[in-house]
Amino acid sequence: MDRRVVVTGMGAVTPLGCTVDTFWEGLKNGKCGIDLIQKFDTTDFKVKVGAEVKDFDPELYMSKKDVKRNDPYAVYALAAAVQAFDDSGLDMEKEDAAKVGVIVGSGIGGLMTMQEQVIRLHEKGPSRVSPLFIPMTISNMAAGNIAIRLGAKGVCENIVTACATGTNCIGTAFRDIKHGYLDACIAGGAEASISEIGVAGFTNLTALSTTEDPKDACKPFDKDRNGFVMGDGSGILILEELEHAKARGAKIYGEIVGYGATGDAYHMTAPCPDGDGAARAIRLAMDEAGITPEQVDYINAHGTSTHANDAGETAAIKLALGDAAAKVAVSSTKSMTGHLLGAAGAIEAIACVKALEEGFLPPTINYHTPDEECDLDYIPNEGRVVPEAQYALSNSLGFGGHNGVLCFKKWDE
């Protein structure tokens, strides 16, 4: 018998704030977390803007030694995981540790460490490469460190599907609990790729916005959009089997009721123009949830602000929902957070849970000029109070043609 899966804890380190509350307040207020890049000198770079994590104190969550021994992506992940675990009230001394898992991924992993150590190798020779280079770089180390810190001995995995990573991690955790392999799981994603090599690579791929005004650089679904803005951070959710959560008196934020994952089998970086792959993932998530298109109240779109993504995703939503697509509220919170790559789906899952919990749908900011290719209701510029909202979809589409969609339900008994 399938088991119900609920969200009992959340943690976030984002460009809008380093807690769930500050992140959510930023989304509600249409705050832009994008600014001029401060991590390095952008004089020789075409791209000047990014969505960096600001005012973050990692030593609130770990020792100074832990900070030094980990790449920033893993530091963000561990901080968000500690927040989420504390929020959930789980007590590992009372749990069967083998039934508590960790599924946390990163799209790229320790890119900043890789850049630094390759430069060191070139300038100072092989003997000067850090002995921690490998563990700091590999993208599974966030999950490993979280499991070590919290004592979770169940499944410990790192799913890597580029920009669908966070969503696929949460979806896999959902299924592991639903089908009885775990009682609880720490799930999400983390990224810290705003670096010289990261920005240069995405720039030369012609994927990034070259707009120099940070407050106008990310404009999903707008006719004048010209690329995405890189973001850093992490989002972590504690997923738990319903009866297990009830038995310990946990606060329940929302319920996951569906998950869909597909592949485009089309192109290394471009989404399928007709939206077929993403549409199939949306339908799979709705089918597992047992809902019709007319029951979808909100879609947190992948909405990167690239021409191909936004047009293709709009086509996918229309293909999956049919006539109901014209009535569903859609927004891209990347307009405020930038694109957190492997962490994007995780912070956007949190946005969906909070949207349903509070009956408030966050906006797409910087939306000024409609595009005939993008003709849905994108909640332009100001959020919307919708207390009756019951179901939300969260879309994530990654390089390589990876599509992941989660379906959330407002919590009620």
CATH superfamily of the largest domain: Thiolase/Chalcone synthase
Q: What general outline do the C-alpha atoms trace?
A: globular
Stretches with pLDDT under 50, minimum 5 residues? none
Please state the CA-atom Rg, rounded to the nearest Å: 20 Å
The CATH topology name of the largest domain reads Peroxisomal Thiolase, Chain A, domain 1
Tell me the structural class: alpha/beta
Protein model, in words:
The chain has 413 residues and is of the alpha/beta class. The relative contact order is 0.18. The two termini are 19 Å apart. Helix 7 (165-178) packs across helix 13 and helix 10 (276-289) packs across helix 11 (307-321). It folds into two domains: 5-247, Thiolase/Chalcone synthase (Peroxisomal Thiolase, Chain A, domain 1, 3-Layer(aba) Sandwich), CATH 3.40.47.10; 256-410, Thiolase/Chalcone synthase (Peroxisomal Thiolase, Chain A, domain 1, 3-Layer(aba) Sandwich). It is built from 13 helices and 14 strands. The protein has helices spanning 20-28, 64-68, 72-88, 111-124, 133-137, 141-150, 165-178, 196-204, 242-247, 276-289, 307-321, 334-337, 344-358, and strands spanning 5-13, 35-36, 49-50, 100-105, 156-157, 184-191, 233-241, 254-263, 298-300, 329-331, 360-361, 384-385, 391-398, 402-410. A ten-stranded mixed β-sheet has the order 5-4-6-7-1-8-14-13-9-10, with helices on both faces. A two-stranded antiparallel ribbon has the order 2-3. Strands 11-12 form a two-stranded antiparallel ribbon. A hairpin with a 3-residue loop joins strand 13 (391-398) and strand 14 (402-410).
